[in-house]
Amino acid sequence: MRRLAAARFISLAGTDATAVAIGFALYEQTHSARLLSFSFALTIGGAAVLSPFAGRAGDLFDRRRLMIGAELAAGTVFLTLALIHTPAALLALGFLAAATGTVFGPASGAAIAHVAGERHMAWANGVISTGANVGKTAGRLAAGILITVVSAAGVFLLNALTCVLSALLIRSVRRAFKAPLTEPAPEDRERPAPVPVGGVRFVLSNPTVKLVLASACVSTFATAFSMTAEVPLVFELGVGAIGLGALTACWGGGMVLGSWVAGRVLHRGNEATGVLVGRLVMAAGVGLIAVSGSLWPMLTCYLLGGAGGGFMGVAAQSLVMRNTPDSLRARTLGAIETCRNVAFGLGVLGAGTLVGLMGARPVYALVGMVMTLGTIPVATLVFRLGGLRPLRAVPA
To answer: Which terminus of the chain faces fewer neighbouring Cβ atoms within 10 Å, N or C?
Structure first.
């Protein structure tokens, strides 16, 4: 698990650095919030279409080979970006990079659940999330520095290298990533009868997974607006690429903290409460950006929001995995990713226009409010499962 966490650290350090570089380079060349939101719609829309097929592939084929192939394909895309980074290339190659991610995500999530087993689910998700979030933090912070000192092309070249290193680490893991199947214990999941064979049908048939997804879709829809507002915000503050890197690095740092804590205090009895609390903290962090007067308090808000997001992410992933048989895990993750991508795509359709009309800070306030409303499905789940539970580890 730690080797897989190291692979995610290396890969996401490069990938998130590239995401910052693509957004900054696109806005710097065009100064168009609408084009920035269109780039999100293009990449997320493509992922939404491809995720169901990628999830099915993660259940039917060798997960290790799929993950390695996705990393090498992504490395090729980022190497091309280092050579060609016009606005058209940023849009087209950004779409291809997102497509490779749709293959990697469901396969890796399903593999983690199988390698760790039911007993260590929360711990394993915490380890992987911590590695991923440390990588995101390092990548986002490095992106701001590299864009300023070198160029966006330097960031793209570095990411091509990280993809190769990640593939080598994944190849070095010898333990099986799939069958023999391990079914969740009866007390851990609601077993539909009969079990549907499709990821979407399974999600819609399982009340726990369905409520978690409903909350995620609302929050993801709102996130489209804050992500579109992020680059115009740093231009408004006059802090440039380093300010953008610092903001996103603080979010990533908060996620590191949140996922690290989650891996140590969550278990099957309190994961639903963890999703609820994490989402509320994330909403508070985002909403408070609107009343922050300068960069420094905004950094604190990003740290708070990231901590909530990191804690929530581990809780939600573990809760979904406990309620899903191994034979459907990749398809279920693919279906969830599709729904979230559709929600994000719907958000970015109007995000650029809204940011242009309202300005960046009012949009953050609106996002915080919508995220808070999005906790209603999770609150329903928490009380249906018996109410709030203490967020502390079970004594050994």
So the answer is: C
Q: What is the pLDDT of residues 94-150, one digit of tens each?
A: 788 777 777 777 777 777 777 776 677 787 888 887 777 777 777 767 777 788 777
Q: Give residue for tokens 């440390």.
A: 134
Contact between 16 and 81 (Cβ < 8 Å): no
What span, in angstroms and rounded, lies between the C-alpha atoms of 9 and 7? 5
pLDDT for 215 equals: 95
Q: What's this model's pTM, rounded to 2 decimal places?
A: 0.76
Q: Is 359 left (phi over 0), alpha (psi -120 to 50) or beta?
A: left
Whether the Cβ atoms of residue 340 and residue 221 lie closer than 8 Å to each other = no
Beta strands in 117-189 (DSSP E): none
Spatial contact of 63 and 110, defined as CB atoms under 8 Å apart: yes
Handedness of CA 182, 186, 189, 193 (dihedral sign): positive
* Cβ proximity of 340 and 224 under 8 Å: no
Residue 92, sorted as left (phi over 0), alpha (psi -120 to 50) or beta, turns out to be alpha
**CA–CA separation, 154 vs 284, rounded Å?**
35
**Whole-number Cα distances in Å, 224 to 72, 218, 231, 369:** 28, 10, 13, 14
